[in-house]
Description:
Elements: H1 11-51, E1 58-60, E2 65-69, H2 81-87, H3 90-103, E3 113-114, H4 121-141
Antiparallel strand pairs: 1-2, 2-3
Helix pairs in contact: 1-4, 3-4
Amino acid sequence: MLGGGTFAWSPLSMIVGYRVVEYLKQKGDALYPAIAEKGQRIRAGMVEALGQNNILARSTGMGSLCGLYFPKDASTVARNPGEIQRFTDVELLDQEFRIRMMNHGVFVMHGGGAVSAAHTEEDVERILGATREVAREIAASR
């Protein structure tokens, strides 16, 4: 028999996966709302920090998922990845925002990422603090 994949055919991966599912069955009712609340705070906080520096930004996502894009004008609401490519400042997102966030120790994918149970309140504040710094840097460079 052949097996393939990142975690396939690994007894340790199966044991860990099983234990995670068991943990989520027990703790999920408290865990998921806390994760979603952190995601909401990050989405709102990023848009607020950028807006305070006159940088138009919109957040996407729900629950633990956080995304960000920079519309070319205030009337733009991107509904899918194609519209983000056509109607937003992708260069600002990919070449300026992401790199500046990395320089502040925060790694974002597509303008955001996902929050997990491992993220602490300090992590959330670090993300938002980095966003505030990056917003000031971008505003000063314009």
